[in-house]
Amino acid sequence: MGDTYVQAYFHIVFAVRNRKRLIENSWRSDLEKYITAIIQNRKHKLIAIGAQPDHIHIFIGYNLNDKIPDLVEKIKTSSDHWINSNRKSRFKFHWQNGYGAFSKSQSHMATIANYVMTQDEHHHTNSFKQEYHKLLDEHDIMFKEKYLFDFFDDIGNKEEDATP
Q1: CA gap 66, 42 in Å, rounded
Q2: End-to-end CA distance of the chain
Q3: From CA 96, how far away is CA 16, in angstroms rounded?
Q4: 123-145 residues labelled b (16+ CB within 10 A) or e (exposed)
Q5: What is the SS3 assignment for 13?
Q6: Which residues pair with 16 in a beta bridge?
Q7: For 9-153, CATH number?
Q8: Measured between alpha carbons, how far is 157 from 71 in angstroms, rounded to an integer?
Q9: pLDDT digits (tens, 9 = 90+) for 118-157
């Protein structure tokens, strides 16, 4: 009797609604652990996760029995609820609509995992908008700017960026 063997990897990216910088360092690790549990409960293998104040990167070994849209929806709705019910943010928290999901090969696992884990360093020189455009370009994804995340060129690290 034959068996079936499949391996797929995805790099998933999504942002906080209106690109507000609501993910604070004081609870970022807890959020990453919470999302890790969701991923593992759905039988995916977490390879790397890296949250920034206004977006998150997740790199997984993908369980083909679970649809990417269903996984992302579960991560977003569950973590929204967790953040708000535990009052992690001083402001109402929501993830923005949409996401990017980029397939990766096993030969790129270490590079992508390192990229996800070093987001703090990466964003000293590149904005999220630059980063996201680069991901879309690298994967030959045609897009219209008006359908991407809301990007605000003047977004800073100031507290007033996180107004409710």
Answers
A1: 7
A2: 59
A3: 5
A4: beeeebbebbbeeeeeeeeeeee
A5: strand
A6: 95
A7: 3.30.70.1290
A8: 30
A9: 987 867 777 777 777 778 878 778 776 766 666 554 444 4
DSSP letter, residue 16: B
Cα distances (angstroms) measured from residue 15 to each of 24, 65, 80 = 14, 25, 12
DSSP 69-95: HHHHHHHHHHHHHHHHHTT-SSS---B
Cβ atoms within 10 A of the Cβ of 110, count?
Answer: 11
Distance from C-alpha of 99 to C-alpha of 90, rounded to nearest angstrom: 24
Phi, psi of 23 (to 5 degrees): -80, 110
- For the question of whether the overall pTM of this predicted structure is more than 0.70, the answer is yes
With left for phi above 0 and alpha for psi between -120 and 50, is residue 111 left, alpha or beta?
alpha
d(CA 50, CA 33): 11
In the chain, where the domains are located: 9-153
Tokens of 70: 């269903």
